[in-house]
Amino acid sequence: MASPSYTLDLRRSAIGTVQLPGSKSLSNRALLLAALATGQTQIRGLLDSDDTAVMIESLRRLGARLDQQSLESTSSAVGPEVIWVVEGTGGCFPSVGSQTEPIDCFIGNSGLTIRTLLPAIVAAQAGTGSVTVLRGVDRMHERPIKDLVDGLRQLGAQIDYLGQEGYPPLRVTGVALKPKSEIVVKGNTSSQFLTGLLQAAPQLSRQWHQPVVVRVEGELISRPYVDLSIGMLRQFGVAIQESAPNCFVVQPCDLVSPGALFVEGDASSASYFLAAGLLGGGPIRVQGAGRTSLQGDVQFAHALAQMGAQITWGDDYIESRAAGFDASGLPIVQAVDLDCNHIPDAAMTLVAVALYAKTPTRLRNIGSWRVKETDRIAAMAAEARKLGATVEEGPDFIVVTPPAQLRTASLRTYDDHRVAMSFALTSFVHAGDMDGDMGGEGVNAPGGETVIPSVETRGHSPEPRSGALTPSAESLQGRAVTIEDPACVNKTFPTYFEEFAAVCAQAVPVIAIDGPTASGKGTVAGRVAKALGYAYLDSGALYRLVALQSLEQSVAVDDAKSLSAMALDMQLRFEGEQVWLNGRDVSQAIRAEAVGNRASQIATQPMLRQALLRRQRDFARLPGLVADGRDMGSVVFPKAGLKFFLTASAEIRAERRVLQLQARGESADLGAITADLQARDARDAARPVAPLKFVPNQGVHYLDTSDLTIDQAVAQILAWSSAQT
Ligand code: C5P
Q1: Which has the least CB within 10 A, 174, 252, 680, 722?
Q2: CA distance 231 to 413
Q3: CB contact set of 167 (below 8 Å; sequence gap of 6+)
Q4: Cβ pair 570, 546 in contact under 8 A
């Protein structure tokens, strides 16, 4: 089922550091080799995503042992570090399947998993008679695998097509193999076929007591991925040489666990943030892959440099920023004509960047896009056209002519993570956006939400950047990009949109005000926002909105999945004190005690908190944001320029709440309200994820308002704020 669409409103700048998730390519190679090897392998930095999940589950079904261990982390925001412990099978998968009850490996839409697992099964179950079925989602059954099957059949492997000839699903029967002096494979559809054979070669060489030669017939695409495979095999003690171009010799040997492995950050995932560094001015640093990376996709940075980025390389990071800005302060983006054979995945990102140039960009030698998660050439062309571009596509190229103005559009993502991640970049301001009305009252807020900032403008600036757009009260109206089924990014980068929202939010001055229930932080935050002309986020209202819906629809407090779906799906509009939920004015309803109570209960669910993360970050917009809640400074806006912890004694807070209720004409019992506040405080402070607590010496200003009027509290915060600017 498709996830609720995500509408990204225009954003101007992006700054910050992104910790990359583990490389998918390295993660899946490491898992398979560790499962085939002798000895135990401890893998750190493994990617947690759909594609790794299907590899792990398949290996378990084949009889390998893979367990997760948690290490206490030093950073509370990211949770404990996970280590995967893989017990090697010594080259023989122990499970046995039969014709009637085969081992059932579901590999989703992970091309790398099926293409590396198939040769591994053929080699590791040779002669056992064991039967395994490899199947995936519908799209996987349209992705070719014939070249690899043909390569394996040269060895006598018994592989049957269970559907269409040449495509998964497949049935593999573990028959004895015939030693061959040379295995020939085609490499012009996918380099993963070669990788699969190379990873199985140590098993074969051991069984046959002779070197195994794997030779690519014809063209080999995406060569850097093959180098990645060779590098990983060498880490497992394999002696492998390229005896002639595209001809590889593996000496008889055991795969031996290196003991510990560290998976570097994903260079393909880095491409979106490096591009954001150009389109949003930057600098953005991607941490986890750099100069010493094994992954070919780090070469994307060179392509981006040709398009106008200034790139800085570190051993394990890459940083990108716009090299120049035009007269209106927008980054200058140059069109390119590039052979992208060496960076097939990351090159998709260039399509989005090309929309910001002035002349056409041509990406060549990308025929493999046609047989990936979707027909990527067709998909990128169709969606870029919806944005107003003129696109020419051929069997192995795409030419993108940028439009004068990008259009508001709802973009299909074809169950393809890279389509979704690339087009999110089109939410950056485009030259065409600058021509419209720049001085409207409202600021477009996430998902059609409207925040009315007040008029006086004063405040902090983001880190100065020469030549770039400087913050001002002006607001850009109108254009928005809707990403359909955004959860498709779970394939390789489940937290992509949260990270994307975070770097955009970091370019905006944020004042974070956290504190317990009824500490007065809402009233104070609202007034501070008004005084500075900033937008205001009442994050508690978001929890209350989910709580209200959960009460109305009888969703249980622990039904994290339904609660998160509601959080992602709700259509919101904020105008001053008024709040609309799916078109209904719920300003009063969400303030009811029962709703507040329910909000505090559901707020303990990590999945719900995650679902609300990007929605909260999307409220950050120029000229600035004041956000109040429990975890604004610690989790949602950890880079906020100013952080406050606002509190008051429990008695004072209870008295204030009673007065508030009485003012609304509601009855209030001081004893009951005090008990209720204490229970909520305890829940907020005790939850394992994003607990409410004041940690001294972390740059957070502590303000006890027990003896202060609202005006005094506001004045105090404004004084701190102006002292900082
Ligand atoms: O601030 P308010 O009382 O409106 O928040 C309602 C509830 O939502 C709180 O009791 C708290 O448990 C939860 N909340 C949260 N994190 C936030 C804001 C509110 O957990 N940032």
Answers
A1: 722
A2: 33
A3: 141, 142, 143, 144, 145, 146, 161
A4: yes
Bridge partner list, 513:
628, 644
The one-character DSSP state at 38 is B
CA of 631 to the centre of ligand 1 (A): 9
Question: Tens of pLDDT along 46-88?
Answer: 999 999 999 999 999 999 999 999 876 544 344 568 999 999 9
Cα separation, 647 vs 520, whole angstroms: 8
Task: Give SS3 for 460.
Answer: coil
Which domains are delineated in the chain?
Answer: 5-19+264-433 (3.65.10.10), 24-262 (3.65.10.10), 508-534+623-724 (3.40.50.300)
Bridge partners, 580 (sequence order): 573, 585
3-state secondary structure of 458: coil
Name the residue of 524, 600, 614 whose CB sits within 8 Å of the most ligand 1 atoms, as the mutation to test its pocket.
600
| Largest pairwise CA distance in the chain | 89
* Phi and psi torsions of 6, nearest 5°: -125, 120
Cα–Cα distance, 250 to 206 (Å, whole number): 10
Q: Is 24 exposed, middle or buried (0-12, 13-18, 19+ CB in 10 A)?
A: buried
Tokens of 396: 């192995």
Do residues 107 and 58 touch, judged by C-beta distance below 8 A?
yes
**Atom of ligand 1 minimally distant from the CA of 603:** 20
For 690: left if phi > 0, alpha if psi spans -120 to 50, otherwise beta; the answer is left
Determine the Cα–Cα distance for residues 642 and 68; give it in Å rounded to an integer.
38
∠ Cα 68 72 74 (to 5°): 135
Local structure of residue 210 (DSSP, 8 states): S
Residue type, 8: L
Each residue of 369-420: pLDDT tens digit? 999 999 999 999 999 999 999 999 999 999 999 999 999 999 999 999 999 9
**What separation in angstroms does the CA of 456 have from each of 11, 20, 121, 306, 531?**
22, 39, 68, 42, 6
* H/E run at residue 700: strand 700-704
Q: What is the mean pLDDT of residues 541-562?
A: 96
Residue type, 535: A
Q: Global pTM?
A: 0.88
Nearest CA to ligand 1 atom 3: 517
Distance from residue 606's CA to the centre of ligand 1 (Å): 13
Give the CA angle between residues 395, 396, 401 to the nearest 5°: 95
Q: Is 686 exposed, middle or buried (0-12, 13-18, 19+ CB in 10 A)?
A: exposed
Strand order in the sheet with 158-161: 103-106, 131-135, 170-173, 158-161
Whether the CB-CB separation of 144 and 166 falls below 8 Å is answered with yes
Residues with a catalytic annotation lie at 345
